[in-house]
Amino acid sequence: xxxxxxxxxxxxxxxxxxxxxxxxxxxxxxxxxxxxxxxxxxxxxxxxxxxxxxxxxxxxxxxxxxxxxxxxxxxxxxxxxxxxxxxxxxxxxxxxxxxxxxxxxxxxxxxxxxxxxxxxxxxxxxxxxxxxxxxxxxxxxxxxxxxxxxxxxxxxxxxxxxxxxxxxxxxxxxxxxx
Length: 178
Fold this sequence. Notes:
This protein is α+β, with helices and mostly antiparallel strands. It has helices at about 1-25, 40-50, 60-65, 150-155, 155-175; strands at about 30-35, 70, 80-85, 95-100, 105-115, 120-130, 135-145. A hairpin with a 2-residue loop joins strand 6 and strand 7 (about 135-145).
């Protein structure tokens, strides 16, 4: 009986410490990767400005080519939307929609993953270096607010999302330099 009492006290104390530490973790997270693509800014912008072309270079599509995809809204620009559903727990289900774009320099998407009501945002900044040299910067940002579990997950975002973003940019580069 004494053991159960101390076990319960230890578990409660541990949960309390995790909650307190969680409130001191960063509320927001941002991950950024860039690459130089040997093609025009217009070609890069056109490739990125449609959810229907996303799987041409998406690293997530390569992880599960059997996932189910559904496209809605216009073919390109604001409102172009993709929903997916995968049996792979790393991919799960979600939606990705272009919510803002400024030709030819920026495209912003909103991501909902699973049942999480809080969106994440990905932005592509497209900068012309020379006529056939374009710098693409892909940034992900999320605000976890008071979601303590999200704040702990945010600690792993740089490594997990950053690696996949770099792979995606490498795929995009290959596609656009053919």
